[in-house]
């Protein structure tokens, strides 16, 4: 009886997770991050962060060479800027000379605007970000994490 109950619970968990909307994760560049209402508005230029054979093939098509240094290649396919809502409580991470540092969305907005209110030694101010978009409407961005680019 216990085995049957465990199986039923496992099936219910699998079915409920299959029906849940997944979170989206995207790589790209932040064009602007501005305070709006109770949160922020993000203007985001998505790109493709490729590794492995996909990176080699894309680089070959773009440049004639398959040489992918550091095993990644970024494809900037157009520059359509997408607009997202960002929760004020979203997790934001920037890269500094001391490592990755968590900052508030308010501080990140100032960094994106070219200011550095806490005088952090930013490692790569122009590096891209991974954004995680929540599954529930209005699908706010719940995290923004800067990507190291050797």
What sort of overall outline do the alpha carbons produce when their principal axes are compared? globular
**N-to-C SSE string, H for helix and E for strand:** HEEHEEEHEE
Radius of gyration: 19 Å
Strand order of the largest sheet: 1-2-4-7-6
Helix content: 25-40%
- Structural class, by secondary structure, is alpha+beta
Described by its quaternary structure, the protein is single chain
- Number of strand segments: 7
Q: Please report the distance between the alpha carbons of the first and last residues.
A: 56 Å
Spans of at least 5 consecutive residues with low confidence: 1-16
Characterise this structure.
The chain is an alpha+beta fold and 150 residues long. The chain has one domain. Helices cover 25% and strands 39% of the residues. It has three helices and seven strands; from the N terminus they run H-E-E-H-E-E-E-H-E-E. The chain has a five-stranded mixed barrel. The longest helix has 18 residues. The chain is globular. The N terminus is likely disordered.
Write the layout of secondary structure elements.
Elements: H1 2-19, E1 24-36, E2 39-50, H2 52-63, E3 73-75, E4 82-96, E5 99-103, H3 105-112, E6 129-133, E7 141-146
Parallel strand pairs: 4-7
Antiparallel strand pairs: 1-2, 1-6, 2-3, 2-4, 4-5, 6-7
């Amino acid at each position: 009886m216990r085995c049957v109950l465990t199986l039923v619970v496992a099936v219910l968990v699998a079915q409920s997770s299959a029906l849940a909307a997944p979170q989206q994760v995207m790589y790209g560049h932040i064009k602007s991050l501005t305070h709006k209402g109770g949160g922020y508005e993000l203007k985001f230029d998505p790109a493709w962060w490729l590794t492995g054979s996909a990176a080699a093939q894309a680089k070959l098509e773009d440049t004639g060479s398959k040489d992918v240094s550091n095993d990644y290649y970024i494809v900037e396919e157009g520059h359509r800027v997408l607009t997202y809502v960002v929760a004020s409580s979203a997790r934001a991470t920037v890269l500094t000379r001391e490592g990755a540092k968590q900052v508030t969305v308010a501080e990140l907005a100032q960094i994106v605007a070219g200011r550095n209110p806490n005088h952090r030694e930013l490692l790569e101010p122009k590096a891209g970000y991974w954004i995680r978009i929540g599954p529930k409407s209005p699908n706010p961005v719940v995290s923004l994490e800067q990507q190291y680019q050797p």
